[in-house]
Amino acid sequence: MDGGYTGLCRRLISEAGASIGDEVLVVTRKGEYRGFLMMRYELGAADHIVLKLANGYNIGVKVWDDSRVVKLSESRPPSFRAVEPPPPDPGLPHVAVISTGGTIASRVDYRTGGVRPALTASDLLSAVPELSGIARISAEVLMSIYSENMNPRNWALMAERVDSLLRSDVDGVVIAHGTDTMGYSAAALSFVLQQPPKPVVLVGSQRSSDRPSSDAALNLVAAVDIAAKAPIAEVGVCMHLGHSDDVIAFHRGVRVVKLHTSSRSAFKSVNCEPLALWTRSGLKIQAEKYHRRGGDDYRFMPGFDERALLLKFYPGMSPEVLEVLRERLCLRGVVLEGTGLGHVSSSFIPTLKRLRDEGVFVGMTSQCRYGRVDMLVYDNGRDLLRAGVVPLDNMLAETALVKLMWVLARAEEYEEVKRLMATNLVGEMGGRSMPEGVG
Amino acid sequence: MVLDYERLGLKVGLEIHRQLNTARKLFCPCPTEYDESGEKISFTRFLREAQSELGELDPAAVFESRKRKKIVYRMDRRSACLVELDEEPPHTLNGEAVEIALTAALLMGSTPVDEIHVMRKIVVDGSNTAGFQRTCVVATGGRVVVDGEAIPIQTITLEEDAARLVESSRGVVEYDLSRLGIPLIEVATAPVIKSPEQAVKAAKAIGDILRATGKVKRGLGTVRQDLNISIRDGALVEVKGVQELELIDDVVEYEVRRQLHLLDVSKRLAARLGGGLPAFNPVDVTHLFTDTKSKVIRRSLDAGGRVMALLLPAFAGLISEEPFKGVRLGAELAAYAKAWAEVEGIFHTDELPGYGITSEEVASLRKYMGAGDADAVVLVADLEHYAVEALRAVYERAAEALRGVPNETRAARQDGSTVYIRPRPGAARMYPETDIPPIPITENYLEELKSRLPETLDRLAERLSRQYGLSRQLVQELIDRERVEIFMEILGKTSASPTVVATTLTETLTSLARDGVDVGRLGERVLLEVFQLLSEGVFSKEMLRDVLARAASEGVSDVRSLVSSMGLAAVDLEEVRRYVDELVERNRSFLGDERAVKRLMGDLMKRYRGRVDGRLLHQILSERVAARTGAAQG
Ligand SMILES: [Zn+2]
Fold first, then answer.
1. A180, B223, B395, B593: which has the fewest Cβ within 10 Å?
2. Across-strand partners of A299?
3. Do residue A287 and residue A317 come from a single domain?
């Protein structure tokens, strides 16, 4: 017995010989409560016992030294009847689903209140039965971590697993991922898995899949459908386009960013259209150019060098920040998120010069997100260029950082790093800028 | 036949729901007052039944998910935010609502819980965007006293109101989000009420206590009474949505008579049928109706539908029997078919030939189905899938008829009858709301609340009658009509006479209603403004009834412009004063004579009747006379 209880509660419960789920009577100076013993949330005060009343409601009962807990009956073991998935249709495409963790791949255990990972093939099919009509699913749990705990080693692990799947007989790969850093992972996979022969679709959900209104089911349906059949063989992200459960956007992995903390339409393609829009009636391709399924130009290019930094400039920021970090982290490269067209204070110029002389790459992106940097318009921009800062066009700052890590892992020389950073490799930069609401 | 409820073992439990008049919704900062006139944006959703970790599927959730509807929501940015869209986690539980609920709990002698845990009650019909309603127990125990008898309270809960159903059709249901999230208090009694009259009184007693908090909403749609009703050998039936107190006894009586009839039917069926029903076997009988004159069947066939039939052995005569108005097994079968398959209706041989179906068609139908004289046949004309689903529901309901009264959730209708809506939900549908930490209710806080409990409505009546010199009867009428709140507000904010306000809010409104004026359109804001203008002297007391009548029939919200458009407010008070001065000046030699002053008043009334309040005229005149004569005048 633990159930999150400590101190007095724990003593009273264990003296009664009760476990989570047992029916108990709690007698306190205020009254008697009969119910099923529930797990304690971490956030609650320590001297309350949580009971589920006969009507299904939970309440917290405060206990004192003179309170008593009496066990009335043992809990009945839950008779979980998972719906048997229909047998796979051999005529359907084969899609591998890799679970890495996050909201989409977890279920709340209501008996205890805890969260546990759940993304086996049968979990998936019982939660979203229509998947079995789209593809034969094989599912695996590769890792089970919240997306904020992801790091480049996790990206590498993911990329390796996807690489081996791409070389197998699957028709596409779906990666269930927490949404917070899904954009970074998508960018990382985009650089490692170049010109993949099949779609690699990252998918998440903003609301957990145990909720009747979760966006998970439709996102998954779209992701599996795209992985199974779409002509686009790129690394991308599948999430709701708007507030409705109808259109799912398939975003290019290097162009997508999470722009809202909680809305189901949080993911947006920035400075370009989504690759495609999916609805139940089909896929509408939006991209002018994309990599087609089935090519033989696939290249697996693994490796990230973590000695890179993404720094957001703010008014009054001291250039010392950059110097100290460079020193402490042995940085080989920095992506600046500057203001407007790509500026930082002119007080940075001596530091930036020194970094350049030491062979540390410094690239410029904009905190505006929308639009491209242009450092020729103002004096300060030109001075920054002269100090060695490399403008990174309309690349997302997050993508620029991931790219930099990837570039540093394969280029020793400053000039080669600079060349790769300034070259569009997988669609991460370039393209025409469009007015709002038009493109 | 008068029913002996005690002998029948009637047990009624009440769930009284009432909207709280808080500034904000229960879990977000949206306002609880709204009008539905604004521009709407809409979005569509689908809800999936969430399987319980305990492996149980909730019958009510299965019912909804078998229909899998597209849900269209309409929202107005003024009255809903991302929380209502289920795209932002709920904010903390509204403290103002908790305080009102705790106050009501203390007034009923309930024991507040030590810690409030917000739960998710699964509801997948779309009325909650999340697919669940957030709800929490605030207190347990307590009682209300009715005619000296204590009715125990089981729980007092606080929950979010649901979205308002706009329309529902096959495959699509539409809701408006303005109402979603308004705090509701729910008071549930133990199922110990023994008669329809006691149910009415208990509901009123609970309603009075809730109103005593001074923080509940009033008016149409702010109160909803759910009843659970059972009789011995019957079943526990939940009747939802009784809007008016006066309807409660009718609903209870109807439900008792319905259960009695169903019990009677089940006994007779058992005797006739021996065993159970044969296996479900719907039969396509479209070919018997190719030349039908029945418009309903014709329309359905033209739309590509089929006519499907189901044999109900030994049911002949029992389906259309109607021992009490509206109580018929046929109504139950039809309601199941409508609820589960959303067909327009069913035909059964008890009522055929009829509805354009000829006796020849009935004869060939009976022959084809192998139906004897004691058997009944049910028909549904629709697209095949729906027709079969409808007959499956009819079959399942018919099988229940052998057993007696099914457990179910029904809806109350305006005439006091009830209709099936869905199976009763189980306890499997309640999960913790993990986004909201438990909220402790401390002893100190409760002590503080106890020290400032509001007065009961009885005390209030006593006080108002003493304070304003009004009869207890008049004050009681204000209370019973739920107008005492606006009465106090008007007296607090204007200088209108208590008697005038009280009689207007009771007698005048009643008489207007008798004359066919829709007084329901007079919102509290309008009433307040009417009395504000009256006490400013913008129009006179004599015109009050006309102003109210016009405001109600035109549904105005701006009383001031209404009054000026009626030509009542054309008089400038300065002009009146100047005129009175002249009058007094002209008659200055008679001012000592009271009769003369009365005559002057008569002249003034002639000139200003209906445009300036008589009291105001008298006041101006008295002032001027007093100033002239230097004497004190009343
Ligand atoms: Zn809101």
1. B593
2. A194
3. no
Question: Which CATH number belongs to the domain containing residue A13 in this structure?
Answer: 2.30.30.520
Q: Which B residues, 35 through 94, put their C-beta within 8 Å of a C-beta on chain A?
A: 43-55, 82, 85-89
- pLDDT band at residue A117, thresholds of 50, 70 and 90? low
Of A17-21, B250-254, B567-571, the one with minimum mean pLDDT is: B567-571
**Residue of B66, B81, B117, B155 for testing the chain A interface, max A β-carbons within 10 Å:** B117
Residue A232 scores a pLDDT above 90: yes
Give the nearest partner residue to A245 out of B44, B53, B132, using CB atoms.
Answer: B44
- Mean local confidence (pLDDT), A16-23: 92
- Whether residue A307 has pLDDT greater than 80: yes
Residue A355 is part of which domain span? 308-421
Among A44, A73, A102, residue at a domain's last position = A73
A82 assigned to some structural domain: no
Together in a domain, A259 and A282: yes
Q: Most A CBs within 10 Å: which of B180, B434, B435, B441, as the mutation test of the A interface?
A: B434
Q: What is the DSSP letter of B333?
A: H
Q: Are residues A155 and A242 in the same domain?
A: yes
Task: Please report whether residue A32 resides in a domain.
Answer: yes
Distance CA B608, CA A382 (A): 83
In the predicted structure, residue B634 carries a pLDDT above the cut 50: no
Phi then psi for A349, rounded to 5 degrees?
A: -60, -45
Does A2 fall in a domain?
no
Query: Which residue numbers of A are catalytic?
Result: 103, 179-180, 258
Residue A156, domain CATH: 3.40.50.1170
Task: Provide, as residue numbers in chain A, all residues whose Cβ is less than 8 Å from the Cβ of B132.
Answer: 211-212
Indicate the burial class of A421 (C-beta count within 10 angstroms; 0-12, 13-18, 19 or more): buried
ipTM of the prediction:
0.92
C-alpha B213/C-alpha A41 separation (Å) is: 33
Query: Based on the domain organization, do A251 and A362 belong to the same domain?
Result: no
Contact between chains at B45 and A60 (C-beta distance less than 8 A): no
Q: What mean pLDDT comes out for the span B466-491? A: 91
Residue A353 CB coordination number (10 Å): 15
Q: What is the pLDDT of residue B565?
A: 77
Query: Is A399 within the bounds of a domain?
Result: yes
Residue A250 near residue A232, CB atoms below 8 Å: yes
